[in-house]
Amino acid sequence: MPETGKYEEVPRPESINKFIQYLNSNTEVKEIEKESEQIIRIKRSKKNDLRVFMTNIYTVSLADVYDILAEEIDIQAIVTMSAWNGYTVEAKNYCMERDIGLFTFKEFLGVVYYAGKKYLNYVPPQNRS
């Protein structure tokens, strides 16, 4: 169910804490630095760092991506945090064209293992044929 008010776009603190907790348990992750309410930097073992914008938008649209990138152009990923959230195909494609990943919370937990095209083209195990 979509949120309203402050948490309509900003993830709940408990969601962010859980996300960071999961990431910290990943062997690829060396360190996580919280830069702001919605930005974290993930330092990985043998891969590039990832600067991640976290949102709680129910369905991240192309317009939402434009808004996010207008404020935060130096990011490598946008993650929509709640279990029922998603994104449009247009938003995903636009991000990929700019070498920015657009993922759900669950997808990102798998994506953190990859870099380059495997990172951008990540397909969760349940969606692989």
Describe it.
With 129 residues, the chain is α/β, with parallel strands linked by helices. It has one domain: 3-Layer(aba) Sandwich (Trna Endonuclease, Chain: A, domain 1). Helix 2 runs parallel beside helix 3. 27% of the residues are buried.
Q: What's the arrangement of secondary structure elements?
A:
Layout: H1 13-24, E1 29-34, E2 39-44, E3 50-55, E4 59-60, H2 62-71, E5 77-80, E6 86-87, H3 89-97, E7 101-104, H4 105-111, H5 116-120
Parallel strand pairs: 3-5, 4-6, 5-7
Antiparallel strand pairs: 1-2, 2-3
Give the tags.
129 residues; alpha/beta; 5 helices; five-stranded mixed β-sheet
Q: Assign the CATH topology.
A: Trna Endonuclease, Chain: A, domain 1
- Alpha-carbon distance between the termini? 29 Å
Main β-sheet, spatial strand arrangement:
1-2-3-5-7
Query: How many strand segments?
Result: 7
Global outline: globular
Q: Whole-number average pLDDT? A: 90
CATH class membership? Alpha Beta
Low-confidence stretches: none
Give the percentage of residues in beta strands: 15-25%
Task: Give the fraction of residues assigned to helices.
Answer: 25-40%
Rg calc: 14 Å
Number of helices: 5
Q: Look at the helices and sheets and give the structural class.
A: alpha/beta
CATH architecture level-2 label: 3-Layer(aba) Sandwich
Task: List the secondary-structure elements in sequence, H or E.
Answer: HEEEEHEEHEHH
- Provide the domain count: 1
Largest sheet, in brief, is:
5 strands, mixed
